[in-house]
Design brief:
The complex is a heterodimer of chains A (299) and B (342).
Chain A: E1 19-28, E2 31-41, E3 46-50, H1 57-64, E4 71-76, E5 79-80, H2 86-92, E6 93-96, H3 108-114, H4 128-140, H5 156-169, E7 174-178, H6 186-202, E8 206-210, H7 214-220, E9 223-228, E10 231-236, H8 238-241, H9 244-251, E11 255-259, E12 266-270, H10 273-281
Parallel strand pairs in A: 3-8, 3-9, 6-7, 7-8
Antiparallel strand pairs in A: 1-2, 1-4, 4-5, 9-10, 11-12
Chain B: H1 10-33, H2 41-45, H3 50-88, H4 100-113, H5 116-120, H6 122-144, E1 145-146, E2 149-150, H7 152-176, H8 179-190, H9 198-217, H10 219-225, H11 229-234, H12 239-261, H13 267-279, H14 283-307, H15 316-334
Antiparallel strand pairs in B: 1-2
Classes of the chains: A alpha/beta (299), B mainly alpha (342).
Chain lengths: 299, 342
Amino acid sequence: MPSKASSPHPADGAGGCTLAARSLRCSYGARLALDEVSLRVDPGEVVGLLGPNGSGKSTLIKVLSGVLPYQGDVRFDGRELRGVPRRELARILGVVPQEPVFSFPFTALEVVLMGRYPHLGGFAFESAHDLAVAREALARCDGAELADRAVQELSSGERQRVVFARALAQQPRALLLDEPASFLDIRHQVEICDLMRSLADRQRLSVLVVLHDLNLAAEYCDRIYLMRRGRIMTAGSIEEVFTYRQLVEVFETELYVDTNDLTGRMLVVPLSGRTRERLRSQGLSEGRYEESGPRRTQP
Amino acid sequence: MTRTRGPLSAGRLLAWLVGSTVLLAACLALGAALGAGRIPLTRLIGGWGPAGEAGALIFWQVRLPRVLLAAVLGGSLTAAGIAFQAILRNPLADPYILGVSGGASVGGILALIAGLGAAGGSFLVQVCAFLGALAALLLVEWIATVEGRLTVYTLLLTGAVFNAFSGALIFFLQSLASMEELHSIVFYLMGSVPSLRYGAIGGMAVVALGAMAMLVAMARDYNVLSLGEEGAMQLGIDVERIKRRTFIVGSLLTGLSVAAAGLIGFVGLIVPHLLRLVLGSDHRLLLPVGFLCGASFLVLADLGARLLLAPNEIPVGVVTALVGGPFFIYLMRRSRGRYGAL
């Protein structure tokens, strides 16, 4: 049994780290993108970041990963983000971007190997250990057969798995994921989210994930932060956040919110224009808010 | 067409380095042996006969320095081209794109018009050209730095504007020049490899190798930079420092080359592109092998410049452009689809 230090398993042995942000403000020119945002992710948690387009979720990820300037406080295990050198931060924090960029043709394995950069020294070539970590990371993302293919030739879903593997190859203690499943078919969505969940459960990673799919969030997240226009509107458990009133107000569209009897979690279903017409004609008026809990629409 | 090749290993790098060094040695030998007047190498190594003395003079004073300088220039321009392509994240960038060549050309032409060409030989002209390059470097860096950051967009734009402005200035200077001055200006701009003194060549070689060392030290950073600036930052790269350092080192290499030899085009574009097709995108391999292959390329191009219309000489910049242009189009068509959206 190899020792933990030399194990090729992504994120083995280090355990998670606490991510805490307080009163974050960030502006793009004159526009305030983040307005007094505070959040916290503890080791072993999968925390979902939800909200409509433009609500500041990606901006928040960029601020937390040290890419954008900000006002306020960001701490990793109590250490201020501003005081952590970039390379060291890259050993702590793995980021999976929403839209991966590949300016030059590298193979998938070479891209995943770049995740080892924060661990390499000098002009050193990647060691056998680095190669093993990269291959293992790629395998865990169901990407082993993509290893020698040029990333430019891959589909967007395959690229997403490659960048997830790249983040894993960093052997981070915390993961920030910006819509890691948006291009994936449903099988790979489940696989990636299962992987995310097991990293939190078994390796005690701290995971903050931006998701558009509310049901995926309900199925996998321990807690949710619901954002709108740069602010956190609600924070709490699935049951606390996924109420009809809150979801309809934040997403500004009619929804059907209920408990999922099979999983015991919440279920959110969008309602098409036709369905809304039909419901209206049956006398069920829109906007019958309930203060808390799900709203059931009688068919 | 996908090449299946594993990540770079030390063995592969060594193999390519040895191979391209051998190639360079062969090109140097060829370039030194051939020319408008044939000088068999054996004659030089043997005794000096009466015919041999004139031959030896040509060889040692004219041809060998020129061939050696061509190697240094070819390597410098190729390395600068690769480095700029890396920070601009565009395989179509060349060493002249960021404005330094404009400054060098203006500096050189001003010196020619001021009569410095006749007075102190070409050395003063070259010094003025290099000073022009330095001025351009400082100006472009100053203008392109917005809120302490050097963005790709402003760099490209500033370089383009600077080149356009320099071009207009050159036309203006040409309109003021005499017939004789005009002739030397045009030849200067077309680019040709001069025969400098060994001291000057040695100095340029030392600077070029020093610059190469700095660029190669950033080779792995260039690889990660291909993931985009944000992605690179998230993997621990100090992107601003890499961009600034590369801009300065690459511009110095380019400025030196233009000061010595005028505008030799396409070297910094074709050689990198060809090598990317063969070697892949890993800059740890591209940069050193690029330097050596670029050196070979220019030595051969200079040989062509001397031989093609012998005993007349074509400026080497014309050879690289005439050969390079169609060849580059051919390369681009062959590699279509490799660069994604490009």
